Amino acid sequence: MKVDVAWLREWCGPQASDRALAERLTMAGLEVESISGGGGGAVLELALTPNRADCFSVRGVAREIAALFGASMASREAPAVAARSDARRELRLTAPEGCPRFAGRVIEGLDAAAGTPGFIARRLIAAGMRPLHLLVDVTNYVMLELGQPLHAYDLDRLDGDLCARWARPGETLALLDGAEMTLDSDVLVIADDRQAVAAAGIMGGLGSAIGGGTRSVLIESAFFAPAAVAGRARRLGLQTEASLRFERGVDPAGQVEALESATRLIIESAGGRAGPVVDSVDSQRLPRRQPITLRRARLAALLGLALPDADVAAMLRGLGMRVEEIRAGWRVTPPSFRFDLDMEADLVEEVARIHGYGNIPETPARWSAHPAPATEQRVDEDRVRALLIDRGYCECVNYSFFDEETHQVFHAGEPQLKLANPLSGELSVLRRSLWPGLLRNYRANRDRGTPRARLFEIGVCFSGEPAEITEEKWVAGLLAGNAVPEQWGEARRETDFFDGRGDVEAVLRLSLLASRCRFEAARHKALRPGRSIRILRDQERVGWLGELHPRLTDGGKGTAPQVFALRLDAVCDSKPAQGARISRFPSARRDLSLRCPRSVPAGEMLAAVRAHGGDMLREVFVFDVYESGETLQADIKSIGLGLIFQSISRTLKDSEVDDAVSGAVSLLEEKFGTSVRE
Amino acid sequence: MRKALAAIQSAAAPDELEALRVRLLGRKGEVTAQLKALGSLPAAERPAAGKAVNRIKKELSAAIAERRRALNECLLDADLSAGGIDASLPGRGVLPGSEHPISRTLRRVRTILAGAGFSARSGPEIEDEFHNFTALNMPGNHPARDMHDTFYLPSGMLLRTHTSPVQIRSMLAEGAPLKIISSGRVFRRDSDQTHTPVFHQVEGLAVDEGVSLANLKSLLHEFAERFFERKVQVRFRASYFPFTEPSAEMDVRWEDGGWLEILGCGMVHPQVLRSGGLDPERYTGYAFGMGVERMAMLRYGVRDIRRLFGNDVRFLGQFAP
């Protein structure tokens, strides 16, 4: 909200510079975003918080200044304008829960050609409003000054009396801005005998609007309950100066004063005869400020500061409150315009604000001696992050939604989890995986000249059905380009599946329960068949690893990226290590060179040897694989297995080790059709 | 004797040294000759003279051995140096990548606050009206909801607009006393130069008997100094949040003399304590929250928030692993 400083000073003018005013207002919660102009024409731009409805006017801000500077308010009661005609309209409270006070007044015989006085036009412009027509400008001027929105109807275009009632089902209203609105039945309207003529507290109707020929006017000055206005304007897409004020709350005692002020300004410019003030009130339904008890002890406890009683009472009185001293503290009745004060904590804030937050001490809390947890039952997410970073990865952060097409490409067949009100089509579906984001990041970086990629992201992905969405945290990575950054010392090699697998194994190995994980060949829509595996932990599916399907990699440009994804909460539980005895006896190594059909998975051979090996076999590993070569047939591969034997309690005899090796050889022969290469 | 020692010291090669040894100590060497000549001395002088010659022999032997070691060392060194490499070439392998500045900032905030006894909690990104709004004193048509443009799902659930729902969940689950931080993604239906529809918040909540605004001020001032790693001047301005009362914003005095808002805070609203199942007469609490992107931008001099979501490795690579 913009406030003309000179106007403000007409209401309250402490001896302080504009800058000092701005500073105090800012510190007290009325943030001054800027001071523009200067030399008498200064304008403050205030960022009002939604609780301070009472400051939505020049007078409201002036009251705040008076309280902050201990200054007094100028006496500017608008004198009543006596009625000079009998012309009146009845104003009925048909929906008193929404409109408990409806005041208004007719003015007839106006000079239709009268223009807006210069000072009004200037102040409207300073506030960011455009002068339009004397009658409209006066209502706006009074609203800016006193905070009470008014509405001017062309009397000749109204049919009979007015009432405030809820809209009828399907009722429509052509608004001032030309739009035709169909109103829901929870929208309060002002209606004449025939139809709705205004959306109450939001905007007037076109049919009764002031125009160039208006000679008689009805000024409406009402109190609409915040609950009857709040949310409607936003729903209709019509936030107006009036709706902003009504939904936060206007002073329920200020209707007649605003009406008198407007009457006087109109008659001064356009002549005319005012009718009597009609003021329909349902006083039972008008908000009434209840006294609030502020306990001295509570005030001191919440602030961490004990203030002298007299100071507290003076601060509250300065804010227009009625203060009565009681034994525990004070009984405080806020003024009618303070909608934000209805409990003790609210008064504590008022005292803190006026005393100044800067004057409250900084007191360290009493020391709390609880030891911090340092769990080994779970791998910390930061540890996973650090591991990937140390292995050369850059961490990415992508939005949580993408477009429908991306969903189709990666997750065809799974239901789309759509937002009801997306910002755009590109951001309309919740992500089921992190790969689309990483793929987009890879492409963008490659096109900017960085073809080697090690990218990862940790974030929540969504799964399930639209009615029942599950959230899970995943870590996913993408690898592409050279296996290591191009350099002199290592042969150039494209990143392949096993680079990705190495990184996945490293992440899994952070948990001491990693041995529960298995890898099995499985198909995934986004992965190339024959180069994709699923990761299981016990029977639970916890991740994927593979080469992106060529369909997704805009054909031809280098080899396809490798990707992986792991469900973080499923792979992070761990346990403390258990130190076991280390053998002090020598170990024996035997190497096996085997031929076997290409289709035999090496992983199964390893598992079989391990399972068969007993206590003596400490370790078995693949030290070599040939899949093609002059001497080998196309469907045969050659595998080298290294076996290391060791006992915890004795030196093994050669014969025992030889027996164990031949046992392994015959097992492999029987199970996988392998033969020992000569 | 002195001459002999000098000759040993200046022998430049093992051959030369060996020749010297033979000349001095060999069977026909000078020292050997002296030993042989002992027999011609009177018996009374023999022991003393013998002692002297043997001492000379011992000293020369030691000098020759020492010189041989030195010469061999030189030879080995020359030999090894000939097989040297160009050590100026860079090393093999992979250098570390980089941590995203948002993660880094979150981690630092958590670490700093962990020292003050706060421990991390998390909550769902898909929330319901109750936890995101109602329990936080923002019912139905509350005007503060204007600042929370919300993404809804067809089921009526929503994407959380702040991390504050975690406060409610934690109070309900754990009761008081409670000192927690919650952090993570939040969502608002807003996208322009200074807003992204996805951003991150981190917030803290302390509830106990006798917690005061003065405690909050102390904690946050110290927090700012730890975060920026320098003495900072801070100021607390009155503000408004539906879930705290009194409410404030904390500004930090920047190098250019201006004030920069870094976080919002306040004493937990009694209604929020009640929503969390706690008795506001017994317990008081404070809460504070900040935008992680903003903190990262201030700390690392990033001007455009959208950079943080661009995932350009030239940008990301500037940050430490």
Structure description:
- The complex is a heterodimer of chains A (678) and B (321).
- By secondary structure, chain A is of the alpha+beta class.
- Chain A folds into five domains: 2-69, Phenylalanyl-tRNA Synthetase, Chain B, domain 1, CATH 3.30.56; 91-281, Phenylalanyl-tRNA Synthetase, Chain B, domain 3 (3-Layer(bba) Sandwich), CATH 3.50.40; 292-356, Phenylalanyl-tRNA Synthetase, Chain B, domain 1; 381-571, BirA Bifunctional Protein, domain 2, CATH 3.30.930; 588-676, 2-Layer Sandwich (Alpha-Beta Plaits).
- Chain A is 28% helix and 25% strand.
- Chain A contains 19 helices and 31 strands.
- In chain A, the strands form eight sheets. Chain A has a seven-stranded mixed beta sheet with strand order 19-22-23-27-26-25-24, with helices on both faces.
- In chain A, strand 11 and strand 12 (203-204) form a beta hairpin.
- In chain A, helix 1 packs across helix 3 and helix 18 (602-613) crosses helix 19 (654-672).
- Chain A starts with a strand and ends with a strand.
- In chain A, 41% of the residues are buried.
- Chain B is α+β, with helices and mostly antiparallel strands.
- Chain B has two domains: 2-80; 101-316, BirA Bifunctional Protein, domain 2, CATH 3.30.930.10.
- Chain B has eleven helices and nine strands.
- Chain B has helices spanning 2-10, 14-25, 30-37, 46-82, 101-114, 129-132, 165-174, 213-228, 270-275, 292-300, 313-316, and strands spanning 119-121, 126-127, 158-159, 178-187, 198-208, 234-241, 244-253, 259-268, 284-291.
- In chain B, the strands form two sheets. In chain B, strands 1-4-5-9-8-7-6 form a seven-stranded mixed beta sheet. In chain B, strands 2-3 form a two-stranded antiparallel sheet.
- In chain B, helix 1 (2-10) packs parallel to helix 4 (46-82), helix 2 runs antiparallel to helix 4 (46-82) and helix 5 crosses helix 10 (292-300).
